[in-house]
Amino acid sequence: MDVKEAIAKRRSIRSFQEQQIPEHVLEDIFQLASWAPTHRMKEPWKLKVFQGKGRNIYVKALMRSYERLGFFHQNQTEKAEKMKQGIETYLFSIPHHVLVYMEKEEDPLKMDEDFASVSAFIQNVQLIAWSKGIGVLWTSSPCYYENGFYEEIGLHMKGHKIVGLLQMGFPKSIPEPKPRTAIQEKVEWVEEG
Ligand SMILES: Cc1cc2nc3c(=O)[nH]c(=O)nc-3n(C[C@H](O)[C@H](O)[C@H](O)COP(=O)(O)O)c2cc1C
What we know:
This protein is an alpha+beta fold. It has 6 helices and 4 strands; from the N terminus they run ααβααβαβαβ. The protein is globular and about 65 Å long. The structure holds flavin mononucleotide (FMN). Flavin mononucleotide (FMN) binds near residues 137 and 164. The site of flavin mononucleotide has 8 residues, from strand 3.
């Protein structure tokens, strides 16, 4: 698969087969993704891969965090319980939850550099995985801004920043592409002062 095809044909995957990706394959993907640009050669990405029984730690921490954030509060107890069950079942259907995080920097410039670099790393992961027939969903969540969640997974919000959570596995289905805007609408050519 060439670069053009990987970029244009990659889709965010939201349903996965049960089968786990072999650890050496995941490791190869992460290693190759490490060629992402990184100012001051900091390679700021850090990963926690929750898989098999380890998914319990991530899923339970996430559910308790949503609970603390009042996510289920509007609903009656019975409805909320059903909703929680549904989310948990869905999360356990995903073979790998890859939490990508970095050390926080006090200097906003360095913080943004590192955040940008980790984002480039994540997109590399998505493209490399896609070229191997592996699906990824890059996810964000309000829980990644909640102290308790960090503590439950062994991080601390003062020193760490979660950049994204990558759900990974072999795709069960591939969605239709969502068309992109013509780039002419986004570009301004500045040629004269
Ligand atoms: C920072 C970031 C966070 C995202 N968070 C979510 C998410 O929480 N849930 C989700 O379904 N998709 C999430 N996405 C994926 C986008 O929805 C997806 O890229 C978009 O719908 C375009 O689809 P495509 O990637 O298949 O082209 C996220 C993407 C980015 C870059």
